[in-house]
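Continuing from the previous page of notes. For each protein in this section, the sequence appears first, followed by its structure tokens. Read the first protein now.
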Amino acid sequence: MTPTVAVFLKAPRPGAVKTRLAAEIGDRQALRLYRVMASRTLSAVGETGFDATVWFAPADALPEMRRWLGDRWDLRPQASGDLGARLEAAAQAVPAGSGWLAIGADCPRLDAELLRVAAAVVAGGEIALGPSEDGGYYLIGGPTPLPPVFGGIAWSTHGVLQETRARLTRAGARWRELPTLRDVDTAADARAEGLLT
């Protein structure tokens, strides 16, 4: 089962991406780093050869996304609601019994090899979960439909990963965790990943 990859991106608008990072280094620099990270992520996805959809926000950004990414990618607007609602809608867009992986664009060390490892986990009938150092995750996926893990989570907090693990346990789901990586949300994160000097 080869998964479909859902890549969640925001339109590259100054002041609308990586807001915590922008508060430290300015909107223009944060936007530049966001574009760099998104390019790396999309290159990794392209290297796998997996089918992929770029789920973008805001919903009116299709012309901007086409100018930025060209015609190579299937572009669809993200659903309304919190991150959980948007993830759930993207997962439901693939047929039941299919493999599905969801990623963002702020984890510079997420590469094609790690995506292939996640795909193998999904092909084995398990949930793939990529923990991030900030208590969230940079990747989640599995055979669809996934267990009910997205609703009612306090997103962007340190407890996201712990709550997700608890929900998977309650659902009786089997999952495998990938290596813990760093999301870039702050200037310190960007320096640690070699994106800032």
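Done with the first. The second protein uses the same format. Note its length before scrolling.
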Amino acid sequence: MDEVLTLLAHVSVVIALAIPLVVAARSRFRMSWFVAALTLYVLYDLLLTRGVGVVPNWPPDSSWNWLGKFLALAGTLVVASLPRFGFKRCGFTLAQKPGSGLAWVVLGLLCAVYFYMAISGADGHDNWETIAFQWTMPGLDEELFYRGTLLLAMNEAFRGRLSVAGAPISYGGLLTCVLFGLAHGLSYDSGMYDFSASMFLVTGVPSLILLWLREKTGSVVMPVIAHNVANGAFTLF
């Protein structure tokens, strides 16, 4: 029940944020895609949490949610294979758009910042399972969903675009960043909601850069790399 109430809060916040733009620019809003985006978010969470804990984790002695991540990733790939989505439209391609040079520079700077932070706060490397998990699953699972299938659905729901340094950013894209921040910062537990502004900002703000990288390059490759470096760098020092 806690997870259901958490999801309800996430979805409610996004709906509330969507209403002003829908009223102001109704002709550029498609309700069917917005409902599809929110449905995808709920289904993704159910897979990630293994049916809210109904399915036990595997391997059983693991410290990390390997099975949940694999299930969520598999679900994302199934959605991306559907005709209305498509792997290329979701950014599941190694090809980068022409003019992606600036994106490579931004990616390099972002990775350098995370390694600098990791080295500056070094407290000893983690065990091998943690290193393996943090260097693979967060970026693959979360980027293919948030900057892939969910972004496509939100972009289709909100058709307007604003060019930011050559990257077409939609209001729907911004809402995916809000959802990403809420997934890390807002939860329901022990009879009350708990909102961590610091976690929301630490995850939501960097996701704006990942959104820009995705839209600038037309691919999730750079967001996946940046995400895994952000998680993995701190496990090495």
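What the second structure shows: The longest strand covers residues 186-189. The chain has ten helices and four strands. We return to this in next week's lecture.
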